[in-house]
């Protein structure tokens, strides 16, 4: 009888201890102390505490131990199935861990040169991008309101188009664009395609080619919170290609956004609230890659790879001291940039054998001057896209066969667009000369 009572007391004590262990783990998890929480949860799982597997898998996710998370979720689902309980929610979490594992297998090799912790409400002030790369604004500051109904605004270099995010009737942020014609802004138009299918789409930035857009979304394709995505405009279908998650180390289980490539200074920027206190974000500066190269998941030390994916220390990404020094010098120049002086000649445009213009004030015909502005915009767009095409072709040559099939449609589309631009430029030049000659005769 005494032995039975002792056994019963021991069993009850064990149950109480297991429950206490689980509660301790939950407390540590809520504090963000995932490593310690995982230790408690591993013990709870060994004691077969109900629900411990679920919390342990989530802790593994936070620690970037995605293989362990997948294995734990699968065991948890098997246990639920055995008990004839619903598995739908657990299966969703399992698929998310599998997606995160795929991202970890493809961590991009990127050199980060600096980082700044700033107030979230003023984080755009940390972005010191060149005038050639356009301008960034908060929605209310740009539109002169205090409504709080939008996110950020990107304005192109020549100021004739903006991309911005704004709340819709369903209370989600969507990305729109506006064009400026004859000094007046047109109506905002929702970007076509799948960009706005996420729960929220915000923080747009468009490369100089005019077709590549980076933005952040918090839909089902993100690791957690906002993730950064990239897509390209397809002129044939008047829509955007399927967005791609830019992966690690840019994205994390936290909020990552406002990805900018300053092609003039060869510097990249993005913001993240990973490991930051409430109201603060870290703005990272990196050297953009001409083609994506990833770390070798199979042969690399797993702890080091996780640190690189988490951006544990930017110095871990430094391999070429000269490249880092040069990039940091460019960054300092960008931070302390001075207004550039105007060139003596803005351009050189031949009207006829007797007239060559060098400044906009040389035009006598207002119509010719307005048409020439359009001509310059077309010519600039052509140069930018030509540079982009050369870069894409270089990436294509270096790419694996599986990647080439994905890259080919965008290259062909850009080639077609350039042919169209060349024709438009020739027509615009002819029209400029025709209008100006009517005035100077």
Question: Could you explain the architecture of this structure?
Answer:
The protein is of the alpha+beta class and 441 residues long. The chain is 43% helix and 20% strand. The protein has ten helices and 17 strands. The chain has helices at residues 2-30, 34-46, 52-62, 66-82, 88-104, 139-143, 302-310, 321-335, 366-398, 401-440, and strands at residues 111-119, 135-138, 150-155, 161-167, 173-181, 184-185, 189-190, 201-206, 212-217, 227-234, 239-240, 244-245, 256-262, 267-272, 280-287, 349-350, 356-357. Strands 2, 3, 4, 5, 6 and 7 form a six-stranded antiparallel beta sheet that branches. Strands 8, 9, 10, 11 and 12 form a five-stranded antiparallel beta sheet that branches. Strand 10 and strand 11 (239-240) form a beta hairpin. Helix 1 packs antiparallel against helix 2, helix 3 (52-62) packs antiparallel against helix 4 and helix 9 (366-398) packs antiparallel against helix 10 (401-440). The radius of gyration is 28 Å and the shape is elongated. Mean pLDDT is 86; it is low at 1-17 and 339-344.
Averaged pLDDT, please? 86
H and E string: HHHHHEEHEEEEEEEEEEEEEHHEEHH
Q: How many E strands?
A: 17
Percent of sequence in beta strands: 15-25%
Distance between the termini: 121 Å
Outline type: elongated
Which segments are poorly predicted (pLDDT under 50) over 5 or more consecutive residues? 1-17, 339-344
State the helical fraction: 40-55%
* Alpha-beta classification: alpha+beta
What Rg, in angstroms, do the CA atoms define?
28 Å
- Separate helix tally: 10
The largest sheet, given as strand count, sense and whether it forms a barrel, is: 6 strands, antiparallel
């Amino acid at each position: 009888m005494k032995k039975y009572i002792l056994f019963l007391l021991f069993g009850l004590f064990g149950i109480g201890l297991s429950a206490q262990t689980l509660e301790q783990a939950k407390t540590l998890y809520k504090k963000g102390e995932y490593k310690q929480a995982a230790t408690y949860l591993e013990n709870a799982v060994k004691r077969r505490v109900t629900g411990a597997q679920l919390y342990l898998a989530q802790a593994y996710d936070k620690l970037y131990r995605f293989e362990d998370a997948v294995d734990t979720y699968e065991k948890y689902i098997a246990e639920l199935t055995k008990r004839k309980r619903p598995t739908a929610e657990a299966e969703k979490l399992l698929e998310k861990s599998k997606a995160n594992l795929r991202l970890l297998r493809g961590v991009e090799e990127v050199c980060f040169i600096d980082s700044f912790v700033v107030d979230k409400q003023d984080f755009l002030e940390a972005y010191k991008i060149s005038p050639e790369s356009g301008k960034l604004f908060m929605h209310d500051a740009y539109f002169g309101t205090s409504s709080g109904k939008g996110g950020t605004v990107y304005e192109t270099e020549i100021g004739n188009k903006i991309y911005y995010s704004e709340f819709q009737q369903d209370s989600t942020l969507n990305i729109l664009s506006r064009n400026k014609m004859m000094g007046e802004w047109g109506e905002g138009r929702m970007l076509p395609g799948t960009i706005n299918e996420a729960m929220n789409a915000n923080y747009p930035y468009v490369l100089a080619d005019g077709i590549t857009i980076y933005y952040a979304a918090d839909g089902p394709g993100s690791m957690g919170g906002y993730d950064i995505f990239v897509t390209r405009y397809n002129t044939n279908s008047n829509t955007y290609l399927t967005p791609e998650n830019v992966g690690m180390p840019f994205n994390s289980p936290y909020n990552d956004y406002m990805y900018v490539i300053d092609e003039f200074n060869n510097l990249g920027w993005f913001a993240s609230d990973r490991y930051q206190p409430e109201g603060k974000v870290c703005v990272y500066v990196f050297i953009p890659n001409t083609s994506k190269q990833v770390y070798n998941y199979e042969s690399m030390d797993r702890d080091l790879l996780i640190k690189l994916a988490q951006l544990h220390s930017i110095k871990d990404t430094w391999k070429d001291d000269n490249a880092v020094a040069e990039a940091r010098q460019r960054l300092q120049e960008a931070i302390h940039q001075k207004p550039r002086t105007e060139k003596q000649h803005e351009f050189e445009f031949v009207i006829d054998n007797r007239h060559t213009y060098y400044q906009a004030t040389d035009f006598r015909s207002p119509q010719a001057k307005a048409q020439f502005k359009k001509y310059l915009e077309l010519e600039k767009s052509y140069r930018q896209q030509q540079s982009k095409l050369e870069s894409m072709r270089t990436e294509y040559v270096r790419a694996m066969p599986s990647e080439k099939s994905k890259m080919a449609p965008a290259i062909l589309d850009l080639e077609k667009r350039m042919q169209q631009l060349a024709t438009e430029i020739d027509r615009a030049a002819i029209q400029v000369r025709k209008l100006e000659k009517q005035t100077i005769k």
